[in-house]
């Protein structure tokens, strides 16, 4: 199914587009030559000089900023570099946790194969994330994550350090979440396997705050995609 780029836009002016990126679509073209769509490719079809100012993992949904011209790109790239862009993510994690401005400041290194990361106090790159609890459910928590740096899988590994791995993230020990875990009375049809409530890492880029070219500060919020919304609604309902 081909995505309509216009449908993803949540903010646009002469310089920037902010989209609500759907899950399962890569930010940049992937190395495999299967010609699958990427956000960058769709953005360039929509606006010739489009450049992504940052990227989100393929499974991660939410607010993603795209520059429409070189000056806009430089302006936002510098803000990312100087850590002046405020990024807020929402994650559903395993366990009940009470985080109040908890800062995890632990260096991150990529593992040999480059697909995973680990905490490495010797060779790792500086990384910091701040965590706040939004809502505690029975065995899960909705957490706001504010990455100060932008390392690969930073939020995921830092949450592991707090013994709060993101649900549906087997790479980092996050357990899948099933309706039967939440619902006391649950009857599954005979000879069927229960599917998890969410099939991807439960992480969503909720908002971006940065300065436009005229120095005006803008904050753009991305609504939850369907799978994330369903997960949160079920947690609300049965907690």
UniProtKB/TrEMBL annotation:
Its EC number is 5.4.99.-. CDD domains: PseudoU_synth_RluA_like (cd02869). Residues 15-159 form the Pseudouridine synthase RsuA/RluA-like domain. It holds the Pfam family PseudoU_synth_2. The keyword Isomerase applies. GO terms for molecular function: isomerase activity. InterPro entries: PsdUridine_synth_cat_dom_sf, PsdUridine_synth_RsuA/RluA, RluA_PseudoU_synthase. Keywords: Isomerase. The keyword Isomerase applies. Belongs to the pseudouridine synthase RluA family. This is RluA family pseudouridine synthase. It comes from Arcicella lustrica.
